[in-house]
Specification:
Blueprint: H1 3-11, H2 15-26, H3 31-37, H4 39-42, H5 47-76, H6 82-90, H7 94-101, H8 111-117, H9 121-128, H10 137-142, H11 154-170, H12 173-186, E1 188-193, E2 206-210, H13 216-227, E3 231-236, H14 239-250, H15 258-305, E4 315-319, E5 326-331, E6 337-343, H16 352-366, E7 370-374, H17 379-390, E8 398-402, H18 407-411, H19 414-419, H20 425-438, H21 440-444, H22 463-481, E9 483-484, H23 490-493, H24 501-513, H25 531-537, E10 541-542, H26 560-569, H27 574-580, H28 585-592, H29 594-601, H30 605-616, E11 646-655, E12 658-662, E13 669-672, E14 693-702, E15 707-711
Parallel strand pairs: 4-7, 7-8, 9-10, 13-15
Antiparallel strand pairs: 1-2, 1-3, 4-5, 5-6, 11-12, 11-14, 12-13, 14-15
């Protein structure tokens, strides 16, 4: 297979660009680096497209490797033919290759292999040739009765021959292909109750849906129900139709052995083929569902990580609880912890007046700007308390409910202990909740991505594949924002392109030993950070107020001469431009002619455009250009909701069948996919993402079941 040509067709890219991407990957370049600093070589692909190319490249290379292994094995057996070689060459999936290889694969002991050991293969071949006319099969089979070989009777001989024929049929790649197509087109997934007890899987106790239509989230739900032994799950297909396909493929009418072989066909289908295809069908459905779940998790994680930070604000965090009280932590605009404590505004103690006095005192003393409330246990009570308290404050204070998923994981982790060795686990959690409001990205990178809780069925998908995908999302986010080399934590640095965990620790150690980095070139002195790693990481690391002004921009050191030529061409001071911004540079370049400027500066147009953007807004944080999170001053109870009420909320999670929206009543409401907009959409992610501020109308409220149904239709956004 011509891999470059194949990828070019699949991704609608030129073969030159695809070939460049392959070479860049093979040379050990990271995806963030390729995406940001090699745009001319790939036509300005984004990170995700490059990752998709990488994944597909890996699959095709594994496919070609397996083809070679299968070819060599069959050739060693002396069974290779031109037709077989062509079939292997044309196979486009690993499953196809394995189906072709099936008859030639070393098998464990089977009924057919036992029959062959008894010398019954010639009998099977004779019966399956359909050349016998007007003869008694019993008479033919008598010749193969041999007690020494374990063939005691005619029936034994015929049964052995049937077993061999059944295996030949089951090993047929063509038969399996046709039956797979039948299952894909007409197959049904059915689930029935295995236990007669009420559960979250009740809707699947007598459920069926077409294989070709069943959505990913229902596959994962059914699988979970089966694993927890609430459900029995099967694949159903019209058996008569399947047998008809096999008969058309293998049976010749008019022979003495025709009816005998038809029975072998039925046995092959029910005993060998269908169980195998049923497993394969469910495996394929699960694999697709896993990939969709992983994709959704990544889609939700990215906007969560990229939430604009609440900069230069002093934040009071409230980590809600009942019996043990609500833990407090105050963190200043530089993320320094100023205060920790505990209040008891929630049951059973309900010391509301005392807690209110404490919080109001802290607001005055530390000039609190915003309160961050965790959304875990007792969150509703804590939120009501906060909303009531800030009304009495002497200064304007807002609050926000923060997703605290993973905060407990962080607080009990080795990293949490290293960062705050003198703090109790619960206090560390409160600090994390405060910092999540100040800088979501810096705080969330300390937690395993799968623990952040913005996906569907994330605990049911393959952990390695999930971690690989989510790590890629975090890498893309961290590198697109860039980090301050002199303040970034090890947790943040390890996601920078070309920086391993060990190298991240070495960077921090060097920083502490040398009172910080003065320039990007100092990175070359860090233990374990060689020229290749420097090339990958340098552009994503910033040094405010360093010796080299360009070090505080996204301009890569390899393009410093280009940036200097550009500034000189339009008479900008490098120092002033990188401090206050080269105002009007883009307009001047466009007036001069962007291609002409690129040529004079010795670079490509895409790189030039990026450099201009960096010089006009040096040290910019792309998150600042995104909509700010919604801060609150009040809260409602679920009982206050009425049908037809119009509310503003924040999208908390996007899943296959809709989105969950936080509408300030503690319980998130569901906007079903059918209620998102008037036009048809395949998936909610076409319209919405985590963090979006939306207006919704209440359709129904079920207080007992804690369900709120919302719609975005007929609501002006």
């Amino acid at each position: 297979m011509d891999i470059t040509k194949q990828l070019s067709l699949e991704f609608s890219m030129s073969e030159m660009h695809i070939n460049n991407v392959i070479n860049l990957i093979d040379d050990g370049n990271t995806i963030p680096f390729i995406a940001r600093y090699r745009k001319e070589m790939h036509g300005s692909c984004d990170d995700q497209k490059l990752r998709d190319i990488f994944d597909r490249l890996t699959y095709i290379r594994n496919l070609e490797k397996r083809k070679e292994e299968v070819t060599n094995s069959i050739e060693e057996q002396g069974k290779m033919t031109e037709e077989l070689a062509e079939a292997i060459s044309k196979a486009i999936t690993l499953a196809e290759v394995e189906d072709i290889y099936r008859p030639y694969k070393q098998k464990r002991k089977t009924r057919a292999s036992v029959a062959k050991e008894k010398g019954l293969e010639p009998l099977a071949e004779l019966l399956f040739s359909f050349t016998l006319k007007g003869v008694d099969l019993n008479e033919i089979a008598k010749e193969y009765v041999d007690s020494e070989k374990g063939v005691e009777t005619v029936e034994d001989a015929l049964q052995g021959a049937s077993d061999i024929i059944a295996e030949i049929i089951s090993d047929s790649a063509e038969a399996r292909k046709l039956l797979k197509e039948l299952i894909d087109k007409t197959g049904i997934i059915r689930s029935v109750a295995k236990k007669e007890e009420d559960s979250v899987y009740s809707m699947y106790y007598d459920y069926s849906e077409a294989v070709k239509k069943i959505p990913s989230h229902r596959i994962l739900a059914i699988n979970r129900g089966e694993n927890e032994e609430f459900l029995k799950v099967t694949v159903e297909v019209n058996e008569d139709e399947a047998i008809k396909i096999l008969n058309n493929l293998f049976i010749t009418e008019g022979s003495s052995s025709t009816d005998f072989c038809k029975e072998s066909v039925k046995d092959s289908y029910s005993r060998l083929i269908f169980p195998s295809l049923e497993r394969e069908t469910r495996s394929n459905l699960t694999e697709k569902a896993d990939e969709q779940a992983i994709k959704m998790f990544g889609s939700n994680l990215k906007p969560l990580l990229m939430q604009p930070p609440i900069k230069n604000k002093t934040v009071l965090a409230v980590d809600p609880a009942y019996r043990t009280g609500c833990k407090l932590a105050i963190v200043d605009g530089n993320s320094k912890v100023l205060f920790t404590g505990v209040i008891y505004p929630t049951p059973p103690q309900s010391k509301i007046a005392e807690s209110e006095k404490t919080v109001l005192g802290l607001i005055d003393k530390y000039e609190i700007d915003c309160i961050s409330v965790g959304n875990g246990t007792a969150s509703k009570e804590a939120e009501i308390f906060v909303a009531d308290t800030i009304k009495k404050a002497s200064r304007p204070v807002t609050y926000m409910v923060v997703n605290e998923a993973g905060a407990s994981v962080y607080s009990a982790s080795k990293l949490g202990a290293e960062e705050f060795p003198d703090f109790d686990v619960s206090v560390r959690s409160a600090v994390s909740i405060a910092r999540r409001l100040q800088d979501p990205l810096s705080e969330l990178v300390k937690i395993e991505p799968k623990s952040i809780g913005v996906g569907q069925y994330q605990h049911d998908v393959p952990p390695a594949r999930l971690n690989e995908s989510l790590t890629g999302v975090v890498e893309d986010c961290v590198n697109s924002v860039g980090v301050d080399l002199n303040t970034a934590s090890v947790s943040l640095l390890k996601y920078i392109a070309g920086v391993s965990s060990a190298t991240a620790k070495n960077i921090v150690a060097f920083r502490e030993e040398n009172s910080g980095f003065k320039s990007r070139s100092d990175l070359k002195k860090v233990k374990g950070l060689g020229p290749k790693a420097f090339l990958q990481c340098a552009g994503f690391l910033r040094i405010p107020n360093g010796k080299t002004p360009l070090d505080n921009t996204g301009v890569h050191p390899e393009s410093y001469d280009v940036a200097k030529k550009l500034l000189s061409l339009f008479e900008y001071s490098e120092k002033e431009a990188t401090k206050t911004g080269a105002d009007g540079l883009k307009s001047k370049v466009e007036a001069y002619g962007i291609e002409k400027v690129a040529t004079e500066c010795g670079t490509g147009v895409p790189t030039l455009i990026d450099i201009i953007g960096e010089l006009e807004k040096p040290g910019r944080d792309i998150r600042d250009e995104l909509p700010k999170p919604m801060l609150r001053t009040d809260v409602m109870d679920m009982n206050d909701l009425k049908e037809g009420m119009i509310l503003t909320g924040t999208v908390r999670n996007v899943i296959d069948f809709g989105v969950f929206v936080d509408i300030v009543v503690h319980q998130d409401g569901l906007v079903h996919i059918s209620q998102i907009c008037d036009r048809y959409i395949k998936h909610p992610s076409e319209v919405l993402k985590v963090g979006d501020i939306v207006k919704v109308k209440v359709m129904s409220v079920d207080v007992a079941k804690k369900r709120i149904s919302l719609t975005m239709k007929e609501v002006e956004q």
